[in-house]
Prior knowledge:
Blueprint: H1 2-17, E1 22-26, E2 31-33, E3 41-45, H2 51-55, H3 59-67, E4 72-74, H4 77-91, H5 109-120, H6 124-130, H7 149-163, E5 171-175, H8 181-190, E6 193-198, H9 201-213, E7 220-224, E8 234-240, H10 251-261, E9 262-275, H11 287-294, H12 304-313, E10 316-323, H13 325-341, H14 343-346, H15 352-370, E11 374-383
Parallel strand pairs: 1-3, 5-6, 5-8, 6-7, 8-9
Antiparallel strand pairs: 1-2, 3-4, 9-11, 10-11
Helix pairs in contact: 3-11, 4-15, 7-8, 10-12, 13-15
Amino acid sequence: MFWExxxxxxxxxxxxxxxxxxxxxxxxxxxxxxGQHAPQVTVKVPDASALxxxxxxxxxxxxxxxxxxxIEVEGRISxxxxxxxxxxxQTLKPEGKxxxxxxxxxxxxxxxxxxxxxxxxxxxxxxxxxxxxxxxxSCAYFENGDEDLGTAQLKKIDxxxxxxxxxxxxxxxxxxxGWGALAMRAAQKYDAKCVGxxxxxxxxxxxxxRVARAGLADRVEIRLEDYxxxxxxxxxxxxxxxxxxxxxxxxPMYFSRIRxxxxxxxxxxxxxITTTDxxxxxxxxxxxxxxxxxxxxxxxxxxxxxxxRYMQEGGLEALDVENLRRHYAKTCATWADNxxxxxxxxxxxxxxxxxxxxxxxxxxCAYAFAQxxxxxxxxxxxxxxxxxxxxxWSRRYMYGD
Length: 401
């Protein structure tokens, strides 16, 4: 049959270039091994119609086949991701449709709210199962590399608050506050008066509950609000894992908005994911396409150079830029391990498709950060042109005594 010859030629071409610990089991009982040793990953193909996903193994096609139940995959998720990438790299051309293509979306309050609901309003219990105890859903900071996740997340929050020199009595706006951990920490440890905003109903409700339970209602206000609707001015502003949802066309406006909300002597921090492609292309081999469809609708990643340009256009001066790519690779790998460890607790919380989406997504992100496809930058900024004489002369202040 035609498909048998095509499949055989494809397997042979892979074997000629690399030995993969992969086995493909067909519906007719045939087993195809891609290496000489025992397979670490097994792909089960239930019928001939699913072969098209394998023969054009973009990360989108392979991910789609898995999450839609077209194929079954056995093995450790980290090995599944690595082998999927190897298949894509060996089969697909590095240019054209499966390259690091550039896409842009039109963002509005309504579309952004829909995208946030799609990603964050799964259930609070779902996220609590694999995040740390404070439910911090952003890159941790492993100061020494051996911290547990909860410790590293608190160190990340303190690292941010130290960088922007939060002090007693400061007003702080946290744009995209998640479940409230940063705002609560700023109030508890630094005696700041905080406002946290989110578009997620689930986050809003639990964050308010956590604030009340901690006795911080007099110092922390959680709002269900779009950043475009915030009024007033603040001494300090943080944006953690938020600007990825803003869109490239809106970034100058976004940073201009932060500038308008910042007091003249204030400081802000933007902490977010960037692409490492200088042309602002998404992750290669269709990885970005998978994320757009199944995980983060309308998300856009820009190169740090573009981010800094738009920040300047918005009237902000970057004072300090730190790359935490390695930290996010470790964070995502830890999340993926937690997800695997607690899989049986997670499965009843979501349908089978969403379980598979998140299983692939977390491990895939760990791989993407490790491969330098994407990165994470913290940028400290102030209003452009301000008198800088009061600012520290070195970075020593960020690290305590």
